[in-house]
Each structure stands twice: as structure tokens, then as C-alpha cells.
Design goal:
118 residues; mainly alpha; two-stranded parallel sheet; 2 strands; globular; binds zinc ion
Length: 118
Amino acid sequence: MPAWKGIVGKGFTAAEFAQYADTVAFDKWRPQFVVLHNTAVPAFSECTPLSPAVQQNAVSALAKLHTLLGLDPSRLRLHKEDPKTTHDCPGSKIVKADFQELILEQIGTSEHALETSI
Ligand SMILES: [Zn+2]
């Protein structure tokens, strides 16, 4: 696997993220699943309850990544599912099944249907 390239370090709207994601080449490394993390500022834990806008932004980004890479949202993982992780990321308020359902709904309503069979 190639060396970690670091973070982008930018904030995106859903549309800006979709445009950015389309510019990323996945020719040397092809993810098998997406991991949901909190952000440093604001953390999901600070968004209690998670605002609809923050949740929709996360769902839009996740739907874009799953569509772009042809990934099944059932394979979504939360950072805290990594056995090497010692902290509750992205927080106890995040329910993976809810996000998976929302991602599927978003993919179903987007003009870019999931291209591979799931
Ligand atoms: Zn994390």
C-alpha cells in the first residue's frame, strides 16, 4: 500500500466534496470500505444531538465515496471498530445502521447509481 498522503485540510460543501472526489485517482490504492470518523473541530460529540445539516453533509460525502468506488454501504466501518483504536470515534451518538440506511437512500436518489452489484 502506498504511503499515507495526509489529510486534505479543507472544508467542503457536499457539492464541493463531490467535485473534489472526482479528481482523486484510486489507481494505486483501491479502498475496500469507508471508515467514518469524527472531525477535530467540531467533533460529532459536540454536535449533540447531531444536527440535520451535519448529518446530511456526512451522508452526502459517504454516498459519494460509496458510489465513486462501487462500495456496498453495508461494509461501512466506524473508527472505533478498529481493534487498535482506544477511543470512541466517531462517538456514541453515531449509529452505523442509521448511516448505512441514509447512504443507501442518498445513493438511490442520486443521479449516479451504484455501478457495481452489491
Ligand atoms: Zn477516528
